[in-house]
Structures are given as structure tokens and as C-alpha cells.
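Bug #77: duplicate submission created two jobs. Keeping one. Sequence:
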Amino acid sequence: MKKVSLADISKELGVSKTLVSFVMNGKAEEKRISTEMTEKVLLKAKEMGYKPSYLGKALRTGKSNTIGLIVADISNSFFAKLARSIEDEAMKYGYNVIFGSSDEDSHKSTQLIDLFIDKNVDGLIICPSKGDAKYIEKLQNMKTPNVLVDRYFTDIDCNVVVVDNLEGSFRIVKDQIIKGNKRIGYVNFNVGLTNMEGRLAGYKKALKASGIAFDESLVKNVPFKGIEEETANAVRELLNMDKPIDAIYFANNHLAFLGVKFIKEYNSNKKSLVSICSFDSFEFMSLLDTPLVYGVQSIDKLGENAVDLIMKQINSVAQINEIRVLPIDIVEIK
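Kept job's structure:
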């Protein structure tokens, strides 16, 4: 079906395209176009199914009413829910969201940033990859509205929304120690991002506070690529240590899901059970028949705060740089 244009509307009404353009762009009163004619144009546009060009609107107003969102992996339930939260919140401001996944690949992440800028987005909400720092600095220098969510770079002054990774991790590990679990294996993403660094720091802090020496052999770093096999290898190594471990702590929900799956299969061969805890949760965690402790991030709050910060930048001539840190809740399934 052919897209209806301003010329089509003007032809139907027998008026100039310029007049129709003024009406559709809200300039009827300014151009002294009568109320009667304005109503005729708007009614005819509705009847014909006219839809304005977002690119044309962006060129006229300087705004596209669109936000670009880059997450690490949209197939991960955490990022899928975050994307939905941001989309719902942006709609309250009359904004649409377009998004893509970086797969923790800085090259892909920066390609997406360039693509979204080419599409004239008004701002960017980014879950940055490890090598994105220079590109984020570039956005800051260009004064392109942007917010980093879930992770950030400590040496770049910008807008950030994160949870308290250090304190949340400390509370989870401390809880395990109080329960008598002293040898706690830790399965972590080897990505060098602030959220993962904070969770490792919380793990170490809990050990130190309890008088337990940090044992580097208990920490297993898993790369993003080949994550399923690598997580299984990490858990297998921890379960087969000469000195048995008491618990395994997973740095996020994806690792926890893969780890619990492997442990259940491995324990069918009469291997010893260990306590399980995770910084993050996934939707069906409460349905598992495995006792565990996990943190719950307020994804809705992350989305709300990210959109609030991006809208403040879009609507302000001054550059705003603010860091918002949100607490996590902790849940136990016995």
C-alpha cells in the first residue's frame, strides 16, 4: 500500500501542500489558517491514514522522540526485562525505543552506537562492554545524551544507574558464612566490568570480615563465549577440589542457571551437595527444588531511573552527570 503524503491530502482537498504542511506541523494559528480549514485538513489526514515521517519531524524539530538502547544480551531475562521496563517508561514521555545486543563485544557495541546516532536518536541508554570507554568519552564530548546502566567506567564522569554490587554481594556471602559455609567457590564473568568487579569485591569483603583468608583457587572466571561449557568446567573443578567446598556463589542469573543445571546432573552420580547462592535471579528460580539464596535487582527501578536521567539530559541545555545506586533484596528458598 502506498504511503499517504502531504501532497495526496492537498490534492484531495484542493489546497496547497504548504497549507497542509503548516496544519500538520501545528503552525495553523501562527500562519493564520482558519479553524474550519484546520479541522478539514486534520480530518482528511485521519481518513486517509496519514502517518508523519519521523525523519522529517526530526529534521524540523531537532528531535526524533526515539531512544537507542544497547544491552549485553537481549536473550538474557535480566536484559529482556530491563528493555521492557525502559520501553514502558519511555512511552510515558511519548518516546519510542530501538535496541540491539552487543554480546559483550565492544566492536559490535560501538557499531550499534554509530547506527543509532545515524538514525537521529535523541539519546542513548547503554549497558557498556569492556572496551567502550573511549566511545563513551566521545559521546560526552559531543554532548550526546547518554546513560550507562548496570555497569560503568569509574574514570568517566557521566550518568549512571546501577545496583549496589559490592554491598549486595557482601550480604549474600556473609549469609553463607553465618550458616557455617566457609569454603565458598565463586563463578564469575571474566569481563572486567565494574558490576562484576564490585561483586568480587563484596565476596572478598565478606571473607575478610569473617576472618577467612581469600583463596584465589576458589574463584573461576568464565568468558562470555562458550559460557555453557565453561560454566560446567568451572563447577566441575570446584566440586572436585581435594578439600571439599561448602557452597558455590554465582555472579549472575545466567551463570546460576547453567551452574544449577550442571550440579543437578552431576549429583545424580552421587556427588556431594553444596549450598548454592547467586547475586541475580531468573524468573523460575522459586520453582526449583534446590535450596538457594539469591539477590533480586529492582529492574523496574533501573529502567525508571535510566529514562528519567536520559529525559533530563534531552530537555536540558546543561550537561548533567549523576550516579544513582540502588539496593538489592535477598531471597532464600529452603
